[in-house]
């Protein structure tokens, strides 16, 4: 019998073992790839089915299931705490299909009003209430994505648009109608008589924000100006206009008209922290809109952008004080007006005050 080297046998066995292990790993990886591909195809098929116009209509009255909550949470980009609040809302108030309901602004508003009142009745802490309002805002954004305007013809009649002239005066125009003449806008008599209005055939930009909070820029061209028999002054713009979704605010904004007081502030950096020294002298202003992220108010002082200020006002019977940063200052477009609009970003706002503002913005209080 020929002599066989024992070390050679061991080496062969070792290689055979390594090859077997390698093939086993390759088999597992292949199974994972095949499985993931299958799941992806199934999900794509589900999405395609749901993309059909009749899917939501057929399923709109079915009760909300966990799958519907998961889909809406993913669409809105909710974090774990926000998703938990959404799940609690659906469990307690059993709404119809949430994937359909999210397209109905009024129904969503009523659903979350109930949740807010429930959280308030059990005295939910401020941190949890903040998560509720963050979730509420993200749901709003998801609603806007699903109902986004795509052309000028989709802009609702009565929509207010803003035109800023070369002197940075802001003029308010109102969409009267869209017909075979083009986009018909009613304009102030002062603008009609002003040499600052865009010239016939000139391009100009208007901006506006819808009721849901989406902001748009409309680029158009002036066709002509007219004075109607009713005495209304109108601007007819080309219907061949470009509508663009503008940068979105990070918080929902709400109009209001309340007096306010403001003071200059000196920001002092100490390491990574910033301390604010508030001047004693206070000035009068009038708030015009507010969100949890900022506000707009007018005053008689042309304060330049880039400065800090302390702002005091009340919402209902609740006094609020906040430190803000002026991001833009514009002059009132009204003739002979000496008022200036200050656009302010909040940089230091307590969580309780933030929640109070959010409740006001959503008409919950």
Keywords:
365 residues, globular, single chain, 6-stranded antiparallel beta barrel, alpha+beta, 7-stranded antiparallel sheet
Question: Quick recap of the structure?
Answer:
With 365 residues, the protein is α+β, with helices and mostly antiparallel strands.
- C-alpha end-to-end distance: 99 Å
What's the oligomerization state? single chain
- What percent of residues are in strands? 25-35%
* Cα Rg: 29 Å
Unreliable parts: none
The main β sheet shows up as: 7 strands, antiparallel
Shape: globular
Number of strands: 14
Summed up, the helix count is 9
Instruction: Please state the average pLDDT score.
Output: 86
- SSE sequence, one letter per element: HHHHHHHEEEHEEEEEEEEEEEH
Category by helix and strand content? alpha+beta
Layout of helices and strands:
Blueprint: H1 6-51, H2 53-59, H3 66-76, H4 80-93, H5 98-101, H6 105-121, H7 126-146, E1 160-164, E2 170-179, E3 182-186, H8 189-193, E4 203-209, E5 215-227, E6 233-237, E7 242-245, E8 254-270, E9 273-278, E10 283-290, E11 294-299, E12 308-315, E13 318-331, E14 340-348, H9 351-361
Antiparallel strand pairs: 1-2, 2-3, 3-6, 4-5, 5-6, 5-7, 8-9, 8-10, 8-12, 10-11, 11-14, 12-13, 13-14
């Amino acid at each position: 019998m020929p002599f066989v080297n024992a070390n050679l046998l061991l080496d062969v066995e070792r290689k055979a073992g390594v090859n077997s292990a390698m093939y086993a790993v390759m088999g597992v990886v292949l199974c994972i790839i095949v499985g993931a591909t299958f799941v992806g195809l199934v999900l794509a098929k589900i999405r395609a089915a749901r993309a059909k116009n009749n899917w939501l209509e057929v399923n709109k009255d079915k009760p909300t299931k966990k799958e519907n909550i998961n889909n809406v949470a993913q669409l809105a980009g909710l974090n774990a705490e926000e998703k938990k609040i959404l799940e609690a809302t659906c469990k307690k108030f059993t709404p119809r299909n949430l994937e359909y309901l999210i397209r109905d602004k009024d129904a969503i508003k009523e659903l979350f009003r109930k949740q807010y009142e429930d959280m308030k009745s059990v005295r939910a802490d401020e941190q949890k209430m903040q998560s509720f309002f963050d979730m509420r805002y993200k749901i709003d954004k998801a609603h806007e994505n699903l109902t986004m305007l795509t052309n000028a013809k989709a802009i609702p009649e009565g929509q207010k648009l803003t035109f800023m002239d070369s002197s940075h005066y802001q003029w308010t125009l109102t969409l009267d109608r869209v017909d075979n003449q083009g986009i018909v806008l009613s304009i102030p008599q002062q603008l009609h008589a002003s040499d600052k209005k865009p010239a016939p055939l000139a391009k100009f930009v208007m901006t506006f924000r819808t009721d849901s909070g989406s902001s748009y820029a409309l680029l158009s061209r002036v066709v002509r100006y007219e004075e109607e028999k009713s005495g209304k002054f109108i601007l007819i713009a080309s219907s061949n206009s470009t509508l663009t979704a503008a940068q979105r605010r990070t918080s929902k904004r709400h109009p209001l008209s309340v007096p306010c007081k403001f003071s200059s502030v000196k920001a002092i950096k100490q390491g990574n922290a910033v301390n604010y020294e508030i001047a004693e002298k206070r000035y009068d202003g009038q708030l015009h809109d507010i969100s949890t992220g900022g506000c707009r108010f007018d005053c008689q002082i042309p304060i330049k952008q880039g400065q800090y200020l302390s702002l005091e006002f009340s919402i209902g019977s609740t006094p609020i004080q906040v430190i803000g940063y002026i991001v833009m200052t514009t002059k009132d477009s009204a003739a002979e007006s000496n008022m200036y609009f200050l656009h302010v970003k909040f940089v230091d706002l307590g969580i309780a005050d933030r929640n109070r503002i959010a409740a006001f913005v959503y008409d919950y209080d």
